[in-house]
Specification:
Layout lengths: L1 E5 L2 H18 L4 E4 L6 H12 L9 E4 L1 E3 L10 H8 L11 E2 L8 H14 L5 E4 L21 E4 L2 H7 L12 E4 L2 H5 L3 E6 L5 H8 L18 E6 L15
Parallel strand pairs: 1-10, 2-3, 2-6, 3-5, 6-9, 9-10
Antiparallel strand pairs: 4-8, 7-8
Helix pairs in contact: 1-2
The structure holds 2-amino-2-deoxy-6-O-phosphono-alpha-D-glucopyranose.
């Protein structure tokens, strides 16, 4: 894993944007894997600016999002479909038909998951995947568990995750209990991965991701086995790392 430490979230987001801009300039037909949550918002803002200034275009880009809440329609204010429209898709020149998010209303989530992975395969696989990180080391909604799934699948959310996401809903009771998420295999098949994390609340999960044993109890630790992962963190997220010789960028 290539770990890069930044002085703050803004510097980290600028660097992530540069990696995406390089990717899109090298291959304007790239397939991007996208994430929700607060972490990538500044990255998306930088990509919107780069699109508006003509530095990059999304007209031939295809995207696949990691996950969606189950039981939540695409127009629900807290759906990840709406999040993506608001924070990225509505502000760039992408063809909305080329944006993909698992359906929160899937009647048969097993079929929805299999179809989703097949669509990723047919698009040629994900060239660059951005990931946020749960405080419990989840990626997408692959929660710590006895075993993990390869495929896109339906999953129960842990209490920790529902509490962490309650800030977006009126109360914890309104946070869905289930989601549909790319599996660890779907994520690990991406050619390149950028994992971003900032703040003290992610420090333990970052230590598990980068230095911990590979375990299903810390799903992000599986990324240690991927050949091309760049971990972007700020100082607070890196504060539990035992290796302390990171230059601050
Ligand atoms: C959610 C998402 C994850 C995201 C995580 C962290 O649970 N399913 O994909 O990485 O939250 O969110 P944040 O970036 O807001 O800390």
């Amino acid at each position: 894993m290539n770990v890069l430490m930044f002085k703050d979230h803004e510097a980290m987001s600028r660097y992530a944007a540069k990696l995406f801009i390089d990717q899109l300039q090298t291959d304007p037909q790239s397939v991007l894997g996208l994430a929700t949550g607060s972490t990538p918002i500044e990255l998306y803002q930088a990509l919107i600016r780069a699109n508006k200034s003509g530095e990059i275009t999304f007209k031939d880009v295809t995207t696949f999002n990691l996950d969606e809440y189950l039981g939540v329609a695409a127009d629900h204010p807290e759906s990840y479909a709406r999040f993506m429209r608001e924070h990225l898709f509505d502000a760039i020149d992408i063809d909305q038909a080329n944006t993909h998010i698992p359906s929160g209303l899937a009647i048969d989530p097993v079929k929805e998951g299999a179809d989703y992975d097949e669509k990723i395969r047919q698009a040629g696989g994900i060239d660059l995947q951005v990931l946020g990180l749960g405080g419990n080391a989840h990626v997408g909604f692959n929660e710590p568990a006895e075993s993990l799934s390869n495929q896109t699948h339906a999953t129960q959310l842990t209490q920790d995750t529902r509490e962490a996401n309650a800030r977006f809903f009126g109360s914890i009771e309104e946070v869905p209990t289930e989601a549909i998420t790319m599996g660890m295999g779907s994520i690990m098949r991406a050619k390149k991965i950028i994992l971003m994390a900032s703040g003290q609340a992610k420090a333990k999960a970052i230590q598990q991701t980068v230095e911990g044993p590979i375990t299903t109890q810390a799903p992000s630790s599986l990324l240690q086995l991927h050949p091309d992962v760049t971990v972007l963190i700020d100082e607070a997220a890196g504060s539990n790392l035992k290796e302390t010789s990171y230059e601050i960028l």
